[in-house]
Design a protein that fits this description.
155 residues; 2 domains; small GTPase binding; Rab-GAP TBC domain-containing protein; GTPase activator activity; Rab-GAP_TBC_sf; Rab_GAP_TBC_domain
């Protein structure tokens, strides 16, 4: 079965026409550089076969991390890096149950839920995750946004 659209890029957006498969020379070089950066980041994060021996609290490591952030965090590991930079493991332990509480408050008291529902439906209509109304991904996005609207009412 052939789909009436082309899904041929890593971000999940739908295109009418297929993107070119062959890489240009400059794209191949950029990919090489990106893979080198991934290896360095994995080592720094302690996820490689030869992890760094120093702690992220070490001043030299902090300088290295700062330089690498300004060069750009590779897409493949961006989530892991930001989790480490923001110390999310510790924050999530401290805030355990907060999301469920905010979601429950939003279901009962949110004045923004109707507008958020409209906005979620209009957003990213050409993305594979959000094109279908009330899909799992649309509902997940809605839940996060209404919970956040209760957590930070100034937004």
């Amino acid at each position: 079965m052939r789909l009436p659209f082309e899904l041929n890029e890593s971000y999940g957006f739908i295109h009418d026409k297929r993107l070119p498969r062959k890489r240009e020379p400059h794209e191949s070089k950029a990919l090489e550089i990106e893979m080198g950066r991934v290896k360095k980041w994995l080592k720094l994060l302690g996820l490689s076969s030869q992890p760094t021996k120093r702690s992220w609290d070490d001043k030299a490591v902090q300088v290295k991390v700062r330089k690498r952030v300004f060069k750009g965090i590779p897409e493949k590991i961006r989530g892991k890096v930001w989790c480490k930079l923001l110390n999310l493991e510790q924050v999530m332990k401290a805030e355990e149950g907060k999301y469920k509480k905010m979601l429950e408050l939003a279901r009962n008291w949110s004045t923004e839920a109707r507008q958020i529902d409209k906005d979620v439906n209009r957003q990213f209509r050409d993305h594979i995750f959000y094109r279908e109304r009330y899909s799992d991904m649309q509902r997940s996005l809605f839940n996060v946004l209404v919970a956040y609207s209760m957590y930070n009412s100034e937004v």
